[in-house]
Design goal:
globular, 8-stranded parallel β-sheet, 12 helices, 10 strands, two-stranded antiparallel ribbon
């Protein structure tokens, strides 16, 4: 199955628009995991196993692994998801942005080495910075469009040909770049009006929406702004609010309770 097919199936099978972000910070781990060489893998596996039937996707952030020389644990984590929870797509949050042979190597890293189903990409070097990822026809390519951070407005709100830059990116992605149907967009939950505008431009294209939970994005506003007519179309990401819902040995159970509550809140507004 392609990434978009897996995602559509997961929306239905798990009745969920929730994406759990895997941003492992050992300083926040329960005491019984601290000091273990495989602590990152074990922590993330426990979260995955506790929440896999409640999500439409998982999103490991590569920096949290690479900073601690834990790329091998990231490989093992993604392999575990594919083996134990087949059909739940994995988005490698890498935000790569380069051209030519370098972009080709980043695509190999994401899709051949880590076996991710999709990857986040910075499109601001243009179409040729996106094309190497599209050469993997079963994979998803999720472009930064309107990011959740306040500083995103520094560039994304610049006017170009009568529209804001983020709108132009959305239009390029939907009309010129997405001939293979592989592209999605990142639009932050902290800006529901922009989510609605992007949805208006791109139709039913999948949107990855960070910013609820610890970043304070409003769930109701996010869902109402970004859902498709079918009540899907969104991967609403929550990371810290689920990962660190508990601090004891029952942290995975606490994460499950947080994921259940978040999914229920999302579904209330679908």
């Amino acid at each position: 199955m392609t990434f978009t097919e897996q995602l559509a199936a997961a929306w239905q099978r798990n009745n969920s628009l929730l994406c759990v972000g895997l941003d492992p910070d050992p300083a926040k781990f329960p005491a019984h995991l601290k000091g273990r060489d495989d602590a990152i893998l074990e922590f993330c596996k426990s979260i995955v196993d506790a929440t896999a039937d409640l999500v439409c996707s998982f999103k490991p952030q590569i920096a949290y692994f690479a900073a601690r020389r834990a790329e091998d644990q990231l490989e093992a984590l993604i392999a575990h998801i594919h083996e134990q929870h087949p059909g739940v797509p994995v988005i490698l949050d890498a935000k790569r942005g380069d051209i030519g042979s370098t972009a080709e190597q980043y695509a190999v890293e994401a899709f051949a080495r880590f076996q991710a189903d999709a990857v986040t990409v910075n499109p601001y070097m243009g179409r040729d910075s996106v094309e190497p990822y599209l050469a993997f026809p079963d994979k998803g390519v999720i472009l930064l469009c309107r990011t959740s951070n306040p500083g995103g407005s520094d560039l994304q709100f610049l006017e170009t040909n009568g529209e804001k830059l983020y709108e132009h990116v959305a239009r390029l992605a939907a009309e010129k770049w997405n001939s293979t149907g592989q592209i999605g967009l990142v639009v932050g939950a902290t800006f529901p009006a922009e989510i609605a505008r992007v949805r208006e431009i791109v139709g039913d294209m999948p949107l990855l929406v960070p910013g609820i939970g610890a970043q304070g994005g409003d769930v109701e506003a996010t869902v109402k702004a970004g859902r498709t007519a079918a009540g899907t179309g969104l991967m609403i990401n929550s990371s810290r609010a689920i990962l660190y819902a508990g601090q004891g040995e029952d942290y995975a159970d606490a994460a499950r309770r947080a994921a259940l509550a978040t999914r229920a809140e999302i579904n209330q507004h679908r």
